[in-house]
Design goal:
The protein contains 14 helices and 20 strands. By secondary structure, it is of the alpha+beta class. The strands form 5 sheets. It has a 7-stranded mixed β-sheet with strand order 1-4-5-7-8-13-14, sandwiched between helices. A hairpin with a 2-residue loop joins β9 and β10. α5 crosses α9. The chain is elongated, with a radius of gyration of 33 Å.
Length: about 500
């Protein structure tokens, strides 16, 4: 009896601890306060019975050498034996169910997709070091893949430089949320944030460019174990709401070095592309057709080329679509080495200015403006000054603090026609934020003879060098489409 009581008390304590631990998990069914109190009461009663002084004179149980039918049938003893057998069997069933129960197939598919993305990323990278978490599994009864920081797999080159990382289920925190260690603080960067609500993509692939600045590019994958039929296709398609969710992720996740700033240009888009993984069957055609031929690819494949959001089939034991994803990730890794080509795939905003197609010019030609007639252009050329209304400057991300770091001035002609050439001047220095009265002061070198309609202006002094125009530019200037439809990165 002492052995049975002690055994039951310890098993009940383990069971109660497990249930309370599950109650703290995010998506678990919550225990009522009544249930918690009942468990605590039972635990106290068993503990009190186990510590009762009556048992002190009884030594440890060494096991039964033979089974006594008399004890099993005797009054009192039979009740203890029967109760102990039932309780012991109940604990065995509970533990067995938790270890062997069938899991939700959608969860299994999500974990499997993460492992495949990790595998294909490693295959596409040059040989180096793979740093995986020591123990990505957690739980005593049920083994689950941890999320966020604990499941981040990092790939480094032989010289120790990070090449890529794959993260399972990171929670990208809203700006008002506190990082608990499993969020973006340890998995992507401390500066990847979401305004207001948190975002939870399934799989994050982050590639590091080999440029001097170690530019990092983020792609998202979401595993959806759902399928929609498409007429005329045996592959199938992901549900439309899954594609819509990818658009939401890309528009909700931002990069910001200072998330407390009120300047909207502090926030930059973080995600380059997002892709749904779904259990479609067979291989799909990813390559675009030859120019002049009709594009017969599935619409979610065409969407990848157009807006960098789409879907790729991935099904266990289907080598054809596994090869499609493997080739796709290898292509992401290869274009990541060419920063110009990579950023050229990002869709600019309608009406955005698209600067010349070199990385240096993209980063340096950061003051954009227009001249409204020959009189203004002549004044700019003769006096070598340019002024921009402070309100207009703010809309393109130029402030009094960062204006002094601008190196080039890019001007569009009247009407902003895409057939005209852009004039690019070198900036000598930033003169500061000037009031309208100072701008009209005849004693100032930057005096502006044309009417002024704004209260404050940002003023730059230009060098005496000839402007860079057309194909003669040392930075590789080209004709610019001010509608932003020619590709490249918008201002």
């Amino acid at each position: 009896m002492k052995f049975a009581l002690r055994s039951i008390a310890r098993k009940y304590a383990d069971l109660r601890k497990e249930l309370l631990a599950r109650d703290c998990e995010k998506d678990s069914k919550k225990l009522s306060d009544t249930a918690k109190e009942a468990m605590a009461k039972m635990d106290r009663e068993l503990h009190q019975l186990e510590k009762n002084p009556f048992w002190r004179g009884i030594g440890p149980f060494t096991g039964m050498r033979q089974l006594s039918l008399t004890l099993q049938r005797a009054p009192g003893y039979s009740t203890v034996f029967r109760t102990f057998t039932i309780l012991n069997a109940a604990y065995m069933i509970h533990a067995g169910v938790n270890r062997m129960e069938t899991k939700d197939i959608a969860d299994l598919y999500e974990i499997w997709c993460f492992l495949k993305v990790e595998e294909f990323t490693e295959a596409a990278l040059p040989r180096g070091t793979r740093i995986a978490p020591a123990d990505a599994l957690h739980g005593d009864f049920v083994k689950l893949l941890s999320t966020g920081l604990q499941s981040t797999v990092i790939f480094r080159a032989e010289n120790g430089v990070e090449l890529a990382r794959v993260v399972y289920n990171p929670e990208i925190k809203g700006t008002a949320a506190k990082d608990d260690g499993n969020g973006v603080g340890g998995t992507l960067t401390p500066t990847s944030i979401s305004r207001k609500s948190s975002q939870d993509p399934d799989i994050v692939l982050r590639l590091t460019n080999s440029s001097a600045g170690r530019y990092q590019v983020t792609y998202l994958f979401d595993a959806k174990y759902r399928l929609e039929d498409i007429s005329g296709s045996s592959v199938g398609a992901p549900p439309q709401d899954a594609i819509d969710q990818m658009h939401r992720y890309r528009d909700a996740i931002y990069y910001a070095q200072n998330e407390t700033s009120v300047d909207s240009f502090t926030y930059k888009k973080e995600v380059v592309g997002g892709y749904i993984l779904f259990p479609g069957k067979g291989r799909v055609e990813m390559a675009p057709p030859v120019p002049g031929q009709q594009d017969n690819r599935l619409r979610y494949i065409q969407s990848i080329d157009k807006v960098n959001i789409g879907a790729i089939p991935l099904r266990p034991n289907d080598k054809d679509n596994a090869d499609v994803l493997k080739d796709f990730i290898a292509r992401l890794v290869s274009i990541n080495a060419d920063l110009d080509s990579l950023l050229g795939r990002v869709n600019p905003h309608k009406g955005a200015l698209v600067p010349v197609a070199t990385a240096r010019a993209i980063t340096e030609a950061t003051v954009y403006g227009t001249y409204h007639g020959r009189r203004q252009l002549k004044w700019i050329r003769d006096r070598r000054y340019y002024n921009l209304p402070a309100d207009a400057a703010k809309t393109i991300g130029i402030t009094n603090d960062n204006a002094k770091h601008r190196k080039l001035l890019a001007l569009l002609p009247p009407g902003r026609k895409p057939t005209e050439e852009m004039l690019v001047f070198k900036i000598q220095e930033y003169c500061g934020m000037i009031s309208k009265a100072d701008l009209k002061d005849a004693g100032k070198p930057y005096r502006y003879p044309i009417d002024c309609h704004h209260e404050r202006y940002l003023v730059w002094k230009l060098t005496t060098d000839d402007p860079i125009t057309g194909d003669k530019g040392a930075e590789g200037s080209r004709r610019v489409d001010p509608t932003g439809m020619s590709g490249g990165v918008g201002q």
